[in-house]
């Protein structure tokens, strides 16, 4: 287990380092004087000078990079010049909202995908399998911005049972918060639920065709128990890896879903920072999102290894 | 010595190509029909539209069936049918460049990786790096540098597809290379290049064909999402995603505004998914 | 015995539906009775319906398989019409089952203890601690050392033989009356097979469990079972006491099968007679006897009327028109004759101190540890060893498919260990290889003709225009219809595919042919055809052959000399007959002792005399 972690860690750190260099490069790749870009057309030279000093833009590039990384590690992200306020506060506010949305969607994805996968692999009646297949095909064929629009049309405009957008934090008002969370989380979860469902169905079907299931059947073990105690544990490890990757897609998709449902998360912040050219915020955000994704993948790798003894003992 | 009974009927000698068999299934035909319809609409856009897509008339948010505007007009009085048709055209133009570009680059990298272990490691890490920016975050990063527009959209899609195709082909090459028939060909004197082109690649190509259809759908998704976020093709030029995103504020009073692109995107993606599924089923047999 | 049989299978029919909608009639009226404590073998080649029969008994047919007629009576209860719950009560507790491949038959994510616990739980074991105690006892019973410590280990931490023991423990956990073992030792090495068969014999004797052993190996039958059923084309062709059936077969198929099995006692250089033709197409309805097309005794009525299984003596029954009318058994097969082989010529290939290590820094595995050998023109060198002995690695290194880490390879006296580009081409023209798996070694997308033409093109032999003629000649040479050149590999049978592989290897007119387990994936009757073909090719072309196999009997029969490999070294080498009759190395003796022989050598049992 520890060996497995040690084997995976270097490449994860490498990716993280490379991603930080890329994120760092963005501000420097934008044409023009970064300080002038950041300060905006109306700012006077003293504002530009302050920015230049704060970001250390007069220093050589490696020093600037180290300066930035040092700030990140100590939690000092500096002020946001365009949006206003401390970058760290902006990110902390958005992070809570995005984590709430992503976790909600993850829950939906696992519940819906799990149900579809198990049904698709085990249902005896062909029409159930056909229905599962149609649902996953449809969920994959409808992009989130389309399903988002449809969900809003149906639940907010036509039925009027759920709000069309906005957020009330789940922790401050759970009952209201859930109402606001439901639609965006579902919208974000649908494609991942479909992917998970298909993969689980496939994996489970293969596990059920394994010789050891035949051994268990011949030993008189009940089919239900074989499904849950024999086939599923065998099918699950690769699904967990996929779940890690899908969590990354949920993070990415959150950017879009937040825009559709006016959800005040990191995606909204990123969009705002991008449109208003607040590059230091973009830079910090990019690295944060990549770091979270790399961490999630590392975690899912470890869970995979923990679930599969053949890897665990390596 | 034995005599051999003829085991296969003559028909089995030159079997129809499996892809054709796949596309001839009900699933494949439905998919092809849907995709064909959308592509045709895009190709014939200038003939069918009737209005230029950016011309504004006095009528804003005209309903479906308005004379001269069969699908109505948008909030700026532009003809929705024309915007839809030109939007399809713009989308097809983007994905027809971006996906093949990503696929070719990914495959070239995978081939380079097949040459030497050191190259392989470098290519693998590069793929890891691209994949560490999932989908839209990659889009944000690219547009942060290039600003919104058509080129960044193409670039984002291509970039996102590179590791997908690259990894798929690399896995395929590794799997085929370890097969005994490749060893047999090598011992039989076949050159390394010929083994790659004649034996390994044809047998590793099937998943790539399926992935190509899947990637086209991902490209439609990405274009739409980027337009939605305002980092896609610059207005007023229409794309499917742009029209859809413009319709959002007017959803309550003019739902038809969104109907055209909604139906089109769904039909296109559904069609491509059905084709991919049909191919996948046939190949797996 | 006069008691009612424990298991009574009557006229069982099983069908499958093929993907293109055709009906495949896999089992066509199999009847079988089993008394308490009896051991019965069901023997047959692939496609005979033996495994399907076993699965049908417990209604565990895969996919589209279904019982279309007949009954399976267990103590009078018909299992073909029993409900799911009743079946589950039978599976594991009345009939236990052991399968072929111990590597895949255990769930890799569950511990061995969990496996046993699940079975005990399914059969009413309520108390967890009691189940664990019983699991320990079972592991001990099947000979897993230190069961207390191993109970919480996962399957991949056990060897193949140990896994098969665990599976036997699972099958016995419910204390069944019948143990159904489907090819339980086929995936195992000879010495391990020997141990498992001993275990099965001991357990059935001590527990009184009846045993149905499904196998293709007549040696295993002779070693383990009192009675034998011979299956062909989904029907029982012969049924009787093992000693009687194997010594005096009544059915021509049984006789043919026995004649095709290489015996350890068969001297080097002899020729076995395979059964000509190939098994019947199970998609077609059966008009007469399934074996009629391949039978030397076939008469007109054999093709129109299916023979019934009729009693020929008190104990032996056979389904054969001519045999039913003949009072005496079939004449014994002619004693093996030594084929005339030209004397080996000069040394063509030699290896000195070859070494090969696989793996990385963490784990290293020495596949070859200083192997030296010589091979003469027109000579066959047999290389025998168990899995992991390094014999396949040796073939691959001699064929320059992998580089050697150390040592030298000499071809015609020249050092070709690390040849340059041009040198490698010369080596490849002279040294060719035939592979083990006739399914994996042919590119599924190329036609047979293209596959055989590939080396011709690679070495620039002939012009593009005369290649088709050369391909046709090569296909004819290996006994294939040249018109088959434009068919894809999947439309050929295993034996035919192996012929394509041999034709490909012959294309560049090599001097040396390395055959890596060329017959181990093939049925016995086909195996004899292929070894015969190789012997013919050697005689006609003066080929030097390296023949690698795990089956000592085959190796002795085809080889001039034998090298025995163990853990990457050659532990004994010498004249084929000498190695088999007066082995020097302890390992060779163990290997020889583990080979199950179908019957005692023909000389030991004079024809006409009955020994009981």
From TrEMBL, chain A:
It is found in: Cell membrane. It is a multi-pass membrane protein. Signal peptide: none annotated. The chain crosses the membrane at residues 103-123, 135-161, 181-200, 285-307. Residues 95-300 form the ABC transmembrane type-1 domain. It comes from the Bacteria. Keywords: Cell membrane, Membrane, Transmembrane, Transmembrane helix, Transport. Pfam families: BPD_transp_1 (PF00528), BPD_transp_1_N (PF19300). Its main location: membrane. InterPro entries: BPD_transp_1_N (IPR045621), MetI-like (IPR000515), MetI-like_sf (IPR035906). Belongs to the binding-protein-dependent transport system permease family. PANTHER family: DIPEPTIDE TRANSPORT SYSTEM PERMEASE PROTEIN DPPB-RELATED. This is ABC transporter permease. It comes from Streptomyces omiyaensis.
UniProtKB/TrEMBL annotation, chain B:
This is ABC transporter permease. It comes from the Bacteria. SUPFAM superfamilies: MetI-like. Its main location: membrane. Keywords: Cell membrane, Membrane, Transmembrane, Transmembrane helix, Transport. Belongs to the binding-protein-dependent transport system permease family. The keyword Mitochondrion does not apply. Residues 88-276 form the ABC transmembrane type-1 domain. Gene3D superfamilies: MetI-like. It comes from Streptomyces omiyaensis. It is a multi-pass membrane protein. It is found in: Cell membrane. InterPro entries: BP-dependent_transpt_permease, MetI-like, MetI-like_sf. The chain crosses the membrane at residues 31-49, 92-114, 126-145, 151-169, 208-233, 253-276. The keyword Zinc does not apply. Coiled coil: none annotated. The lineage of its organism: Bacteria, Bacillati, Actinomycetota, Actinomycetes, Kitasatosporales.
């Amino acid at each position: 287990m520890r060996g497995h972690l040690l084997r995976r860690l270097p490449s994860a750190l490498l990716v993280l380092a490379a991603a930080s260099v890329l994120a760092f490069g963005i501000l420097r790749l934008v044409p023009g004087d970064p300080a002038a870009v950041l300060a905006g057309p109306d700012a006077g030279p003293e504002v530009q000078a302050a920015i230049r000093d704060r970001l250390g833009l007069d220093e050589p590039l490696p020093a600037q990079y180290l300066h930035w990384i040092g700030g990140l590690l100590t939690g000092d992200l500096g002020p946001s010049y365009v949006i206003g306020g401390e970058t760290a506060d902006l990110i902390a506010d958005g992070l809570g909202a995005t984590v709430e949305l992503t976790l909600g969607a993850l829950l939906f994805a696992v519940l819906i995908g799990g149900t579809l996968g198990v049904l698709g692999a085990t249902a005896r009646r062909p029409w159930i399998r056909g229905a599962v297949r149609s649902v996953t095909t449809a969920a994959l064929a409808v992009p989130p911005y389309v399903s988002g629009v449809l969900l809003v049309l149906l639940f907010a405009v036509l039925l009027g049972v759920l709000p069309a957008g906005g957020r009330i934090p789940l922790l401050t008002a759970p009952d209201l918060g859930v109402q606001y969370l439901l639609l965006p989380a579902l919208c974000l979860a649908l494609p991942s639920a479909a992917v998970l469902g298909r993969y689980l169905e496939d994996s489970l079907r293969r596990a059920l065709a394994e010789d050891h299931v035949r051994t268990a059947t011949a030993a008189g073990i009940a089919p239900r128990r074989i499904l849950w105690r024999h086939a599923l544990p065998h099918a699950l490890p690769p699904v967990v890896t996929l779940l890690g990757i899908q969590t990354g897609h949920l993070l990415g998709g959150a950017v879009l879903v937040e825009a559709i449902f006016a959800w005040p998360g990191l995606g909204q912040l990123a969009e705002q920072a991008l449109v208003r050219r607040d590059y230091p915020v973009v830079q910090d955000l990019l690295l944060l999102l990549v770091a979270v994704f790399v961490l999630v993948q590392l975690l899912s790798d470890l869970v995979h290894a923990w679930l599969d003894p053949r890897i665990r003992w390596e | 010595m034995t005599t051999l009974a003829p085991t296969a009927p003559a028909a089995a000698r030159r079997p129809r190509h499996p892809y054709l068999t796949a596309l001839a299934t009900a699933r494949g035909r439905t998919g092809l029909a849907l995709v064909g319809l959308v592509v045709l609409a895009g190709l014939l856009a200038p003939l069918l539209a009737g209005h230029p897509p950016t011309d504004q008339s006095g009528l804003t948010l005209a309903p479906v069936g308005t004379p001269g505007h069969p699908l109505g007009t948008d909030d700026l009085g532009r003809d929705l049918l024309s915007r839809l048709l030109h939007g399809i055209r713009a989308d097809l133009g983007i994905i027809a460049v971006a996906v093949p570009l990503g696929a070719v680059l990914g495959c070239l990298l995978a081939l380079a990786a097949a040459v030497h272990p050191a190259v392989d490691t470098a290519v693998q890490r590069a793929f890891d790096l691209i994949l560490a920016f999932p989908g839209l975050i990659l889009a944000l990063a690219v547009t942060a540098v290039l600003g919104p527009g058509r080129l960044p959209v193409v670039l984002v899609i291509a970039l996102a597809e590179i590791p997908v195709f690259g990894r798929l082909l690399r896995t395929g090459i590794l799997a085929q290379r370890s097969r005994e028939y490749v060893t047999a060909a090598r011992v039989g004197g076949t050159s390394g290049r010929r083994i790659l082109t004649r034996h390994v690649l044809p047998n590793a190509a099937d998943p790539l064909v399926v992935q190509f259809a899947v990637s086209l759908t991902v490209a439609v998704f990405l274009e739409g999402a980027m337009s939605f976020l305002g980092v896609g093709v610059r207005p007023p030029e229409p794309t499917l995603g742009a029209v859809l995103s413009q319709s959002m504020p007017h959803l309550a009073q003019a739902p038809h505004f969104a109907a055209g692109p909604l139906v089109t995107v769904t039909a296109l993606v559904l069609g491509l998914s059905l084709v991919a599924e049909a191919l996948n089923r046939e190949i797996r047999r | 015995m006069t008691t009612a049989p424990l298991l009574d299978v009557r006229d069982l029919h099983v069908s499958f539906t093929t993907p293109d909608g055709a009906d495949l009639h896999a089992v066509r009226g199999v009847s079988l009775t089993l008394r308490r404590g009896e051991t019965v073998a069901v023997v047959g080649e692939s496609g005979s319906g033996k495994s399907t029969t076993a699965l049908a008994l417990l209604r565990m047919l895969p996919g589209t398989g279904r019982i279309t007629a007949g009954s399976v009576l267990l103590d009078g209860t018909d299992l073909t019409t029993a409900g799911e719950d009743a079946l589950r009560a039978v599976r594991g507790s009345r009939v236990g089952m052991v399968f072929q491949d111990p590597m895949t038959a255990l769930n890799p994510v569950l511990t061995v203890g969990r496996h046993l616990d699940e079975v005990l739980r399914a059969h009413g074991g309520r108390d967890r601690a009691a189940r664990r105690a019983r699991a320990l006892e079972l592991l001990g019973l099947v000979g897993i050392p230190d069961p207390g410590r191993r109970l919480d280990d996962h399957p991949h931490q056990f060897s193949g033989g140990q896994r098969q023991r665990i599976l036997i423990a699972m099958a016995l956990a419910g204390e069944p009356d019948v143990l159904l073992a489907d090819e339980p030792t086929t995936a195992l090495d000879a010495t391990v097979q020997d141990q498992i068969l001993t275990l099965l014999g001991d357990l059935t004797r001590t527990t009184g469990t009846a045993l149905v052993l499904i196998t293709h190996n007549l040696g295993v039958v002779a070693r383990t079972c009192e009675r034998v059923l011979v299956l062909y084309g989904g029907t029982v062709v012969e049924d009787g006491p093992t000693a009687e059936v194997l010594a005096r077969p009544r059915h021509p198929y049984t006789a043919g099968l026995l004649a095709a099995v290489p015996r350890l006692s068969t001297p080097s250089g002899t020729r076995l007679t395979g059964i000509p033709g190939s098994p019947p197409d199970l998609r077609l309805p059966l008009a007469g006897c399934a074996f009629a097309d391949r039978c030397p005794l076939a008469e007109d009525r054999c093709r129109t009327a299916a023979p019934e299984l009729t009693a020929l003596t008190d104990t032996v029954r056979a389904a054969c028109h001519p045999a039913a009318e003949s009072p005496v058994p079939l004449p014994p097969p002619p004693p093996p004759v030594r084929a005339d082989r030209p004397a080996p010529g000069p040394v063509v290939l030699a290896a000195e101190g070859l070494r090969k290590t696989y793996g990385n820094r963490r784990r290293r595995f020495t596949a070859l540890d200083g192997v030296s050998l010589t091979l003469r023109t027109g000579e066959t060198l047999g290389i025998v060893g168990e899995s992991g002995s390094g014999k396949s690695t040796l073939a691959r290194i001699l064929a320059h498919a992998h580089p050697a880490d150390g040592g030298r390879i000499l071809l015609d006296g020249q050092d070709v260990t690390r040849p340059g580009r041009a040198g490698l081409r010369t080596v490849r023209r002279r040294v060719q290889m035939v592979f083990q798996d006739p399914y994996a070694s042919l590119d599924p997308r190329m036609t047979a003709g293209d596959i055989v033409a590939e080396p011709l093109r690679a070495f620039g032999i002939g012009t593009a225009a005369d290649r088709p003629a050369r391909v046709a000649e090569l296909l004819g040479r290996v006994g294939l219809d040249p018109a088959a050149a434009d068919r894809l590999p999947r439309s050929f049978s295993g034996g035919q595919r192996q012929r394509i592989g041999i034709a490909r290897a012959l294309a560049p007119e090599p001097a040396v042919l390395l055959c890596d387990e060329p017959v181990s994936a093939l049925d016995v009757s086909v195996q004899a055809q292929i070894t015969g073909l190789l012997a013919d090719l050697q005689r006609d072309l003066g080929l030097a052959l390296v023949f690698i196999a795990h089956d000592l009997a085959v190796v002795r029969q085809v080889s001039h000399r034998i090298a025995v490999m163990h853990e990457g070294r050659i532990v004994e080498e010498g004249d084929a007959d000498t190695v088999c009759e007066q082995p020097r190395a302890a390992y060779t003796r163990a290997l020889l002792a583990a080979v199950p022989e179908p019957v005692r050598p023909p000389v030991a049992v004079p024809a006409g005399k009955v020994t009981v």
